[in-house]
Amino acid sequence: MFLRKKKSSPDYYFKRGNDCLKRGDHRWALESFSNAIEFNPDFEMAYYKRAETYKAMGKTREAVWDYVKFLEVDHRSPDMAEDLDDALKEAFKIARRDWQRDKAKQEIMAFGVPNLLEELMEGYDPGGEYADAGFYKLALSLLDPGSPENRYYIGFLQLLKKDYSRALEEFDRAIEESPENPDACYFRGVVLAKTMELIEKKGSMSGRVDELSELSKEACSNFERALEMGFKWRVCPGCGYRTASTMNFCMRCGKKLLAPIQG
């Protein structure tokens, strides 16, 4: 049994989005690409085009997240065809999609993995879910582990991968080589907070109370050190939540936030 595309299909919204983007109608382009993704969450070029729309609107962080999603998604299976002519058209479409995807990937990589990671770090939320394993693997393969300036980025990627012991090692080395990096101290504190969270989730607390207490003190010490070095966010000493607002208590766990050092 063969299926024909309906007018309201991912391809329909993708084409409409492209038309809107070309004439500078970013609001409708954004809505169209979002509709295409809603119809087909694996429509990789829709993520890329939505990222381009966000970038044109000056929304760099949203663009970066869609670039990452584009790199993560790679499903190129053909649609169903009714006859040989349709099958040939589908084959051409797949070849063109591969070419578009590889060209887009080259453009994203030209932006630079460190630049992508800087944007991700700026928008990082310790309470968020980050499951783009494909992108993490790609980014790690493109970063030279022997380069001191990359340790910070590798540590962040290991944090996103939930490999906390490896993340801790990388941030330790990053801080050793660049002692005045407040962001490295902050993220090291987040790794420790995440390690505590993992221990608590396992539920086996017997004999680990002292360990949790030490981890908590060390995490708080890292956050305080980051603030002493000029970290501009308010930080929760418990979970690492950060905010630029003037609120005094963490919206996640209720603890009193550590404030930036004035002066």
Q: How many individual domains?
A: 2
| Helix fraction bin | 55-70%
Low-confidence stretches: 1-6, 76-81
Largest sheet: 2 strands, antiparallel
Total of helices: 11
Strand portion? under 5%
CATH architectural name of the largest domain? Alpha Horseshoe
What best-fitting shape do the alpha-carbon axes yield? Answer: elongated
Q: Taking strands numbered 1, 2, ... along the chain, how are they ordered across the largest sheet?
A: 1-2
**Strand count:** 2
**Broad CATH class of the largest domain:** Mainly Alpha
Q: Write the element-wise H/E pattern from the N-terminal end onward.
A: HHHHHHHHHHHEE
CATH topology of the largest domain: Serine Threonine Protein Phosphatase 5, Tetratricopeptide repeat
User: Mean pLDDT score, rounded?
Assistant: 82
Look at the helices and sheets and give the structural class.
Answer: mainly alpha
CATH superfamily of the largest domain: Tetratricopeptide repeat domain
Q: Determine Rg (CA atoms, Å).
A: 22 Å
Key descriptive features of the protein:
two-stranded antiparallel ribbon; Serine Threonine Protein Phosphatase 5, Tetratricopeptide repeat; 63% helix; mainly alpha; 263 residues
3D architecture notes:
This protein is mainly alpha-helical and 263 residues long. Helices cover 63% and strands 2% of the residues. The chain contains 11 helices and 2 strands. A hairpin with a 6-residue loop joins strand 1 (234-235) and strand 2. Helix 1 runs parallel beside helix 3 (44-56), helix 2 runs antiparallel to helix 3 and helix 9 (164-177) packs antiparallel against helix 10.
